[in-house]
Please model this.
Amino acid sequence: MYHRGMGPRDQAAILHADLDAFYASVEQLLDPRLRGRPIAVGGGVVLAASYEARAYGVRGGMPARQARELCPRLRFVAGHFREYQRLGDRVMDVLHDVTPLVERVSIDEAFLDVAGSVHLFGPPAAIAASIRERVRTEIGLPISVGVATTKHLAKVASQVAKPDGLVVVEAGEEDAFLAPLPVGLLWGVGPATRARLDGRGIRTIGELAAASPSMLKGLLGRAAGAKLTSLAANVDPRPVRSRRGVGSVGAQAALGRRPPTPEALRLAFAFLADRVATRLRAGQRAGRTVTVRVRFADMRSVTRSLTLRAPTANTATLTELGVGLTQAALADHPDEREVTLVALSVSRLVRGEGIQLELPFDGPGRDRRPGAPDPSARWALDRAVDAVRERFGRDAVGVAALRFAAAGGVPDGFRELAECDLADPPP
DNA sequence: TCTGGGGTCCTAGGACCC
DNA sequence: TCTGGGGTCCTAGGACCC
Model:
């Protein structure tokens, strides 16, 4: 009997391939003078740090100023985002040479199920070694690979292998491999869970495996407790899936510290709605639930959402709903004078050719007021904007969005890298 | 000049229906 | 009329991932 993507099983044939310090490694590949030196990609904030920089404690997400304090020699470089996409795709091509069962998790990371490739290319460990060799010699980038019986364990193994290493956990060796490792290496255990476990004296995966399931359930909740119990016991039934559907599309923008004036909100949501709606339309999607997140100066954030009767992908509609939901959230927090970030997201997506499913203008379940914008006119405007951009490029139209983007924030190229493909889920 | 951007999943409570 | 139960949808918040 042979398994197809179902774990656990008798052979370690799941690979997790993860490029090391990807953005920084690409910069060092493109410019040999940067090799061996501590570098950071980004401007005001560190988007990625080389291993040389990490040795000083520099981390992604860190403000540039703090990074420079930790490492005075740190060299900041602007990102070559197109190159990241191109080289990431080339690495995925190498992986696809081994098996069609490749699940790309992000630009620089993927799972592979090589159980069906063994008769062609040899044992999984040899396949992993040849992937590393090819990515190194043909593309010029370091990549770490973990090999194990399940996705979760393969992921842990690749983390242990970093940087530029290979770790194979053979079937039967899982418990011994996991026991001494810190719980934070498990997928789903972040700072909050780690702190709670620490409070119970649980620091290693071995200690977690020995803990009682009912105690974990009480400590972390039903789902998290059950998940950790099964992960610590190395039971992970998730198959490698080559394609998966996207559940939501969103965008956010940091504002610095700004009083939330109507004009500022209008400009910000024009920018966000333009990004979100354009992507939805390009992917033949529309969504019913619109969610706004507002972050205040103390980093606390609140969300407000609204579910429409009919799905929308209209730029003007999302702009207005975004502003309206934000104003509702602000009305509940009258003491907050400054907003540092706003986010807009659309979920409960539906798919369809040439979607023209417009919502009632002023909310769910109501009729349009006299004088309210005509939905079909709005749809026509979107079509016109999309058509102009298709011919002349993204920046050809969209005055408000451009004004906002020019005011600061991260480059569009970086945003695009993080976007998920709106590809079809498997049938 | 404190703290980027795009996602997923889970929980809990209330509304509403049968 | 009262009480009880289950299912589904919606909203808000939180943890976590890359």
Q: What stands out?
A: Residues 60, 105-109, 187-193, 224, 289, 291, 301-307, 418 of chain A lie near DNA strand C (CB under 10 Å from a C1'). Confidence is low (pLDDT under 50) at residues 1-8, 359-367 of chain A.
